[in-house]
Amino acid sequence: LINKDLPVETAIFALKQLFDANNLRPDDRPSMPSSAFRNDAIDEHVEGQADYLLWVDPRPGYFSLCSYPFLLSAQGLFDLLSAENQDQQRESINPLEALVHGRAVMYLRLRVDRAQVVRDAITQLGGISSEDPRQLRKRLRVEFRGEDGIDEGGVQKEFFQIIFRSLFDPDYGMFVYDQQTRLHWFNKSSVENPVEFKLLGVIIGIALY
Hints:
The structure is a single chain. The chain is α+β, with helices and mostly antiparallel strands. It has seven helices and six strands; from the N terminus they run βααβααβαβαββα. It has a two-stranded antiparallel ribbon. The protein has a two-stranded parallel sheet with strand order 3-4. Strands 5-6 form a two-stranded antiparallel ribbon. β3, α5 and β4 form a beta-alpha-beta unit. The protein is globular, with a radius of gyration of 22 Å.
């Protein structure tokens, strides 16, 4: 953690003023790219969990780098976001349920049939997001029906590969593929039903989370 009495605090505050001024140009075009303000040396002071908790509950004499994200590298931001995710995952667990059911309540569990992964995932996630969206903050565990194996990451990776390949397949109908730009875009004939797109957003969020 960074003590407010250290010279680094003054330097960071000065950089914050420069960063804000750079983003207030009349033409909305910063004269310097945001990457110019990143400082790898600052990453040495990042203590993910401690910095995040200090940002949520400030302590006299210290300040959190969460207030100055423009200074951090991708790794520094990743550490802070990971700390936030862990904190939210803990908050999503009901202490009484954890006492009764143990570690089982720590995870968001999906049981899917390999032959209908998309339908099973959308059905289960749709129910969860409607009944108790906080459950979506838990760590994901995936099980393919009829298959043995503990999800230590490999099963989850395969689940995401299957579901994204299926959803972005033009034959599924949600997206169309432009050969010239090599980009997928929304299928005009399918946007009238936003439910699947919303749940796709949920799945992408879980994958990033």
